[in-house]
Design goal:
Blueprint (H helix, E strand, L loop, with lengths): L4 H17 L6 H6 L13 H9 L1 E6 L4 E3 L7 E7 L2 E6 L5 E7 L4 E2 L10 E4 L3 E7 H9 L2 H26 L3 H15 L8 E2 L4 H8 L3 H13 L3 E5 L2 E4 L2 H8 L4
Antiparallel strand pairs: 1-8, 2-7, 3-6, 3-8, 4-5, 4-7, 9-11, 10-11
């Protein structure tokens, strides 16, 4: 369950205070060895540019259930996820939650923010990220067009994903939405042991993302299992047995 607004603000404040007192050191060597480097925005950097970026970054880790971006807070930082998964969400005035996406290793958060963050981010498992002050990163980008172009590519991709989400919520039926989600997650996620697909989010999170009820998610998953489209190996993992048929369902051809 998401923390209250007051609790989320307290957690974020404690994190900022802790980092201000003793900011984690980042070295160019550590950046070069980072396992997330190949899929992160910094993959286009090397040498002096990578060293300069390391000097303006702060590495943080948050635990499962902790919020590290709070909707409505001043958008003072960018976040580059280097490990773990987070859900991105907005709270409606009546308290309902709309999950707008899931961030994984290599995702860069904060590009779409104006003066304040327009979403919250909560860790679904331990999440590690590099945090950059907006003013410092903007100064860095003025001297590094390669990374600026990479960020523009990410911004364009965010727009495409937003358009796909509008189609998902506005036109697709329940089974089409869930099939689309599973295939999309398979494309983004590294395969687990035995080709298992790990789902760190809950069924409630999936329901809030797809605009469905948790009962509909459970019923549709059961139907997929019954027809041998997927196999459920644990509550948070499954195997896609028939990706071709799932793709046909996602496209509305079944």
């Amino acid at each position: 369950m998401a923390l209250s607004i007051a609790a989320r603000s307290a957690v974020a404040g404690q994190m900022r205070a802790s980092e201000a007192a003793s900011p984690p050191l980042v070295t160019p060597e550590a950046c070069a060895r980072c396992e997330a480097r190949e899929v992160s925005v910094c993959s286009v950097l090397s040498g002096d540019d990578l060293a300069r970026l390391s000097h303006i970054s702060v590495v943080s880790t948050v635990g499962e259930g902790e919020t590290f971006i709070t909707e409505g807070d001043p958008a003072d930082h960018f976040f580059n996820i280097t490990a773990g998964t987070a859900k991105l969400y907005k709270l409606l005035p009546d308290g309902r939650c709309q999950v707008t996406g899931f961030a994984r290793t290599g995702d860069f958060l904060g590009l779409a923010a104006g003066a304040v963050y327009v979403f919250s981010a909560e860790a679904l498992e331990p999440v590690r990220f590099c945090r950059f002050a907006r003013s410092k990163l903007r100064g860095f980008l003025r001297d590094c067009p390669e990374m600026e172009r990479r960020l523009l590519d990410l911004a364009r991709n965010e727009l495409v994903l937003a358009q796909e989400q509008m189609l998902l919520l506005g036109r697709k039926r329940a089974r089409e939405r869930l099939a689309s989600f599973l295939l999309s997650w398979q494309q983004r996620a590294a395969p687990g042991p035995g080709n298992r697909l790990m789902l760190p989010m809950t069924r409630t999170d999936i329901a809030d993302y797809l605009g469905l009820t948790i009962e509909t998610i459970s019923r549709t998953l059961s139907a997929f299992k019954k027809t041998r489209l997927i196999a459920q190996t644990a509550l948070s993992e499954l195997i896609i047995l028939n990706g071709t048929e799932l793709a046909a369902i996602a496209a509305g051809d079944r």
